[in-house]
Amino acid sequence: MHAAPLPRRFAPSNPLTGRIRVPGDKSISHRSLMFGALAIGETRVTGLLEGEDVLATAAALRAMGAQVERGEDGTWSIRGVGVGGLLQPRTAIEMGNSGTSTRLLMGLIASHGITATFTGDASLSKRPMNRVIEPLSRMGAQFHGAPGGTLPLTMEGMTPAIPIEYRLPVASAQVKSAVLLAGLNAPGITSVIEPVPTRDHTERMLKGFGAAIEVEETGGERTIRLTGEADLSPQTIEVPGDPSSAAFFIVAATLVEGSDLTIENVGLNPTRAGLIAVLREMGADIEELDRRDVGGEPVADLRVRHAALTGIEVAPALAPSMIDEFPVLFVAAALARGTTRTTGLEELRVKESDRLSAMATALAAIGARVEETPDGLVIEGTGGEPLPGGGPVATHLDHRIAMSMAVAGLASRQGVEVDDTRPIATSFPSFEALLAEASA
Ligand code: S3P
Fold first, then answer.
1. Is the peptide bond before 15 cis (omega within 30 degrees of 0)?
2. What is the pLDDT of residues 28-44, one digit of tens each?
3. What topology is assigned to 26-238 in CATH?
4. What pTM was computed for the model?
5. Does residue 172 have its Cβ closer than 6 Å to ligand 1?
6. What is the pLDDT of residues 257-310, one digit of tens each?
7. Is 53 in the pocket of ligand 1 (CB under 6 A)?
8. One of 25, 301, 324, 354 is an active-site residue; which one?
9. Integer Cα distance of 232 and 222 in angstroms
């Protein structure tokens, strides 16, 4: 990251038109590298997201003995060490801004007999790690230097680790995945019970890599059982486009009059597709073209045309399937007719920033009517009138706040000044270039 903040003003936009392709899915990219690092032989990955978060995962895996290389044509090659084969890293593992890298790698290390120190940036160093420390300690790992459960901290893994049955106290795919990844090298069956389903890429991909993993659904709950001391076989993976990155363009094309934009190759896994359902309920015009399967995930091209939106109550049960999309949904709500009410979003307070507070403050600063509640926002929309605009708005080292407020700028009268665009590179390095291309 550059040393100094990079402010930028996002001006009212021309219509968004043409065809664009967003980069690969962040969740699937992290997992492709990690599972490849545990398979013996060569895993090849195309469409990998080359954002800072995923590159932090790649660097950590190299430090633990895997060979991770990018070919000239953009294909990534991972030669793994086998389950149980990770080596002790020689220096601290620098995780930057990435909660996913940190929590999933803690899971991996928990069942290896190695010690590792994790460090991160100012945003990551505030985020709660107790949610993984607690189950991984039950499996035998030890954690030092984290009285408040935040980075920097040092962990010692344990072999053999103890397989556990764990009921998730928070709806978190990261916690689920950390326990399952630790279970890969624990003798016996590790199970995770999810009262509310969260993104299921870990389950789908581990099955693809040959692990014995079963998912059972009863009464709305999902139980995932993984048989440990697994052997993973290398795979060829095509990473679909990230729906969480597509979200900014879906909302931008919906808000900017005259837009007709096709976003190609967007992942539509049902555990990730909540935003599309909510926007459609608000009146958005999103067409799915050429639905197909890419790398075991449902994918389509999305054609999005400008449409007027109406405020709704967003069912809290939808939250896990659009957990990263709320900041940009709040922008859509600020331009809808009537009131949008969201509840059950406490988890947004522990993302890269407190996204309820950050978005309430940023939207209010550009003239939107927003009320912050303990677990959501209530937004009174303009009925399609552009927001006044202004700023600078504070992004708090949070890529999704920066991109959401950029979208708000496109649909404003005077534009929106974003205080720092550097964090965008953690998940979507080509965001500004694609925006320029679509609105040229
Ligand atoms: C992710 C899970 C989500 C999400 C994050 C990526 C993953 O976090 O916000 O961007 O890849 O498992 P939680 O599991 O903490 O909700």
1. no
2. 999 999 999 999 999 99
3. UDP-n-acetylglucosamine1-carboxyvinyl-transferase; Chain (3.65.10)
4. 0.98
5. yes
6. 999 999 999 999 999 999 999 999 999 999 999 999 988 899 999 999 999 999
7. no
8. 324
9. 23
